[in-house]
Amino acid sequence: MLVSLHIKNIALIEECSIEFTNGVNVLSGETGAGKSIVIDSLSFVLGGRADKSLIRYGASQASVEGVFEVDNSLFPIMEDLGLDADNTIVIKRTMTETRNDIRVNGSVFTLAMLKKLTSVLVDILGQHEHQSLLKVSNHISIIDKYSDKISGLISDYESCYQEYKKVSAELNCFGDKRQRERRKDSLESQIEEIKRADVKEGEEEELLKKREKYRNAEKLLEGVSGAYNSISGEEISVDGLLSQSIRYLRLVSNHDEALAELEERLENARIEIRDVANTLESYSDNFDFDSNTFDKIERRVDTIKLLKRKYGATVEEILSELSKMECEYDELCNADATILILQKKQADLEKKLFDKGDKLSKERRATALRFEKAILRELNDLAMKGTEFKVSFNEERTPDNFLDYITPNGFDEVEFLISPNVGEPLRNLSKIASGGEMSRFMLAIKNIIAGLDGIETMVFDEIDTGISGRVAQTVAEKLNNISVGKQVIAVTHLPQLASFADTHFLISKSIVGGKTLTNLVVLNEDERIEEVSRLAGAVTEVGKLHAKQMIDHAREIKANQKLSS
Fold first, then answer.
1. What is the C-alpha to C-alpha distance for residues 19 and 177, in angstroms, rounded to an integer?
2. Nearest in space to 505 (alpha carbons), one of 5, 19, 9
3. Nearest 5°: phi and psi at 245?
4. Burial class of residue 198, CB neighbours in 10 A (0-12, 13-18, 19+)
5. Which is nearest to 93 in space by CA: 55, 125, 129?
6. Rounded distance between C-alpha atoms, residue 258 and residue 244, angstroms
């Protein structure tokens, strides 16, 4: 339910807050007062087009904030969009000449995310905003909602459909026999190439270390030789200098313990240095540079590089790819047997899919007949007696052709056709010329499915155009019927509809400080009577008396409605 709407700098509205209630919320006022601005603002916050021309003259930005109360059924959608499960949703949308900002419960939203959320919050219908009802693709969902059996049939069918698509995809992966043989030959060659190379994990790193060593052999030996000669050279060496230092200290160390400790430390250092010298000598003697070995290392590194270009960025990935190719090769070797099993499974699923889809289709067609009768009853109430309405289906599918039409929702195509005048052919809804007829037809559908779509707030934007007299009273009563269990917001010129208001808002214009501004107020009882009499065209004592009688009559209908429910 829409709890409140805060509008700032939209068209002639400088700033206003509207607190909506349950039941019927009516917005009325003189032509041009700004009723459409409220609906435009609501449409904007719900994800409608950001029309920069709506920014109030002289303002740098405009914003609309809507507060909604929702039940737990919306929690999965909220969580899917990254929102915490909460019974309150606050949507704020701001626009400037260059920017469009959307926040939902403080989180930044894209327009697509916003529309996904608001599509289950509010439905706006207007004479020129027929929205989902005019989309043929949505007609099937209206029929589906009208039957309590169809949901289970769809679920049953879709489960079989997904399994069928999975098996079909597995079969398609095998291709034809020639393709399989070509793939087998290719895999065999690739597997042989990797196996012949016999690469090992960690091998490349070891090879690169060896290659680096061989590439710098001359430098290595030169460095080792220099270090060895510095330690154990014939003329001046570290070993000789240390031995000389030790001899000097030995002559005096018996006179001072501190010098004896230093002598011992030098002796330990000389032993360590001689060990380093021996290791350097051994390294030099055992350094085996073989140009053939070096060439083998280079070729091995090149082999691994080639495999990496073909099969993976690392040796580990190459070996992983080898395992996958071996599995695929084994599958292809056994393909004929596997294909036979899958084909039988596919054939069984095809039969099941047709049976389930056919059962779903028959239930839809039976439901459509009931829906047609319900619509015609509604249209008859709305002074459209003689109207023809038909739910058009495609030709019934057969086991031989149904696969060409399958979808996750069955294999039916549904379209609503109507002929509002006797003698005229049935046509698509969008071909109805009269705005009044379109409005009444929309009202008929909404009155039938109001409790089925899960949307709590319905907005009717001047759908009473072209309606008067007894039909106007019927329209008002039907809108009131919809408000049972739902919130209705209606922009109207009809006194009959205004008399059913649970909350009545008056929209007017005034000039303040040289600027034209739109104002909105909630009417009290006396003000309601005056406004209903104005809508009826007679703001006189007699007119007011008649307006009061209309309001009292509406209250009586509402009271009886509550008693019967």
1. 70
2. 19
3. -60, -40
4. exposed
5. 55
6. 19
Residue 411: count of CB within 10 angstroms of its CB: 22
Q: Are 55 and 61 in contact (CB under 8 A)?
A: yes
CA–CA gap between residue 438 and residue 305 (Å, rounded): 71
Q: At 132, is the pLDDT very low, low, confident or very high (cuts 50, 70, 90)?
A: low
128 phi/psi in degrees, rounded to 5: -115, 15
Q: Which residue has the tokens 């059962």?
A: 359
Mean pLDDT, rounded, for 85-107? 93
Q: Hey, what are 359's tokens? A: 């059962």
Say if residue 371's pLDDT is above 70.
Answer: yes
Which has the closest alpha carbon to 504: 55, 157, 18? 18
Instruction: Tell me the sheet residues that pair with 62.
Output: 95
Domains of the chain: 1-121+455-522 (3.40.50.300), 182-333 (no CATH)
What is the model's pLDDT at position 73? 86
Name beta bridge partners: 505.
27, 522
Place of tokens 């001689």: 274
Quick one: pLDDT band at residue 435, thresholds 50, 70, 90? low
Whole-model pTM over 0.70: no
Read off the pLDDT of residues 161-208 as tens digits, 9 standing for 90 and up.
999 999 999 988 887 888 888 888 999 999 999 999 888 888 888 888
The token duo for 166 is 């999975």
User: For 35-63, how does the pLDDT look when each residue is reduced to its tens digit (9 = 90+)?
Assistant: 888 988 999 999 988 889 889 888 999 99
Q: What is residue 29's predicted lDDT score, i.e. its pLDDT? A: 87
CB within 8 Å of 385: residues ≥ 6 apart: 379
Q: Residues 6 or more apart from 391 whose CB is under 8 A from it?
A: 139, 143, 368, 369, 371, 372, 414, 415, 416, 417
283 vs 455: CA distance, rounded Å: 85
DSSP E strand boundaries for 34-155: 62-69, 88-95, 100-104, 107-108, 122-126
Question: pLDDT-derived band of residue 412, with 50, 70 and 90 as boundaries?
Answer: very high
| Average confidence score pLDDT of the chain | 87
Helix (H, G, I), strand (E, B) or coil at 490: strand
Question: Residue 547, Cβ neighbours under 10 Å: how many?
Answer: 24
Residue 364 CB-density burial (10 A; 0-12 exposed, 13-18 middle, 19+ buried)? buried
Question: How far from the centroid of its chain's Cα atoms is residue 111's Cα?
Answer: 11
Sequence-ordered list of residues with C-beta below 8 angstroms from that of 553, at least 6 positions apart, any chain: 499
Exposure string (b/e) for 94-116, b if CB count within 10 Å is 16 or more? bbeeeeeebbbbeeebeeebbee
Calculate helix-pair angle for 203-215, 217-232, nearest 10 degrees. 70
Residues 174-183, buried b or exposed e (16+ Cβ, 10 A)? beeeeebeeb
Kind plus residue range of the DSSP H or E element containing 84: none
Residue 147 DSSP SS3: coil
- 2-10 and 414-419 strand pairing: unpaired
- Give the pLDDT band (50/70/90) at residue 554: very high
Per-residue tokens: 555: 């209250």
The tokens describing 474, both together, are 């019927």
**What tokens were used for 308?**
């990496």
Structure tokens at 281: 């000598």
